[in-house]
Amino acid sequence: MKCQKCAERAAIHMRQHKLALCAEHYLEWLPQRTQRFIEKYRMFGPDDRILVAVSGGKDSLSLWDVLLRLGYKADGLYIGLGIDGGIAYSAQSYEKVLRFYEDRAQAHPGLRLEVVDVARLYGASVPEAAHISNRGRGKPCSVCGLIKRHIMNRVAYDGGYDALATGHNLDDEVAVLMQNTLHWQTGYLARQAPVLEATHPGLARKVKPFCRFYERETAAYALLRGIDYIYEECPYAAGSNTIYYKELLNQLESARPGAKLQFYLSFLEAKESGLFDAVREEVVLNPCTKCGQPTSAPGECAFCRLWERVNAYKAEGRPVRVPA
Amino acid sequence: MKVTYRNKEWELPGRMTVRELIRKVGLQPELVLAVRDGQLLTEDTLVEENDHIKLVAVISGGLAASCEGIG
To answer: What is the pLDDT of residue A126?
Structure first.
């Protein structure tokens, strides 16, 4: 197969776009499309300061790379979760992020990498906190999400960033969309979007510049750019609902190229035309009485309550096991 | 040819397209990328008896609503 721009050997064929490109043209195409999406969804402007949440995976490191190539002032935020899983998962992912940052720091004066180590800052790793709090039926994913959302919002807001950018790709978006559709979670459907506005004081604006790229496209970009990302999956992700739905959707994609993209775009169009307006709830948020971050709970937010419980447990000197 | 994917390895005889190869080892073509000598291959590429093909997983799973933070 030939590149449709220069007739060199193609490196990637995107069946949903009926487009094949060589490595060189693909590495131009993806940032150009990203810029188009940033403008189309009014994510941020050329003078805005962006905080990119980076995990060491292909999506977030590619996103940081693309934003820097496009000339944005984009700093990184790495959250050390303290996950080992027999493969030193967090240590490995941090190493990838640090190397990525060091390789680019000289070419981008003022570039920053914010690092928040959960265990060092709060007293327990994510798996330990999950075990102690007994949330998530033996898996730390729900505690992990709670902790990451809180830290990302705090660092983005306190740091005065105009937007917090995450590496969500189209496969992530349609997997969540499918789950929420199957369960008719209309409230969640009403909130799913490429941009989550800062609707309350204390909330950071959240954007997903890669939301229209297939996961294989972000992986191809990382490989072709030579980005050294962590190949290993989070040890706790095995058997997750997200992977299950992604596999299902990719079976559909295999038989009907473009099905995933069509699903997502039709959803956004339906939202735009007001399909979910009737179920859009105005969520009342108040500042947490302890940390000040917006919360729908009366009094303290779920994050502060979690750490109070964890610290009380540890103060009793009781043993801590991490979920297998 | 030698095919590797994560910690697995296969030996496959003959020449075939990348798409056939991926199907033969029981994977979904949408879920992996094929690399030969550091070069990304499209699914119609013919691979030969002596090739070493590395399959790279493209999906990651920790991104459910409860884990929406980072990719």
So the answer is: 95
Query: In this structure, how many other beta carbons lie within 10 angstroms of the beta carbon of residue A179?
Result: 17
A–B CB contacts, 8 A cutoff, strictly below: 144
Nearest CB partner across the interface for A251, out of B28, B42, B65:
B28
User: Which pair of structure tokens corresponds to residue B47?
Assistant: 């691979």
Give residue for tokens 């000040």: A292
> 3-state class of A192 per DSSP?
coil
Q: For A277-295, what is each residue's pLDDT tens digit?
A: 888 767 788 999 999 999 9
Distance from the Cα of B11 to chain A's closest Cα (Å) equals 23
ipTM of the complex: 0.89
Query: Which of B41, B44, B60 lies at the smallest CB-CB distance from A237?
Result: B60
Q: How far is A12 from chain B (nearest CA, A)?
A: 5
Give per-residue pLDDT as tens, A308-319. Answer: 999 999 888 877
E-strand ranges in chain A read 12-14, 19-21, 49-54, 73-80, 113-117, 163-165, 195-196, 206-207, 286-287, 294-295
Q: Which of residues 5-34 of B touch A (CB under 8 A)?
A: 6, 28-31, 33
The secondary structure of A199-256 as a DSSP string is -STTPPPEE-TTTTS-HHHHHHHHHHHT-----SPPTT-TT-HHHHHHHHHHHHHHHS
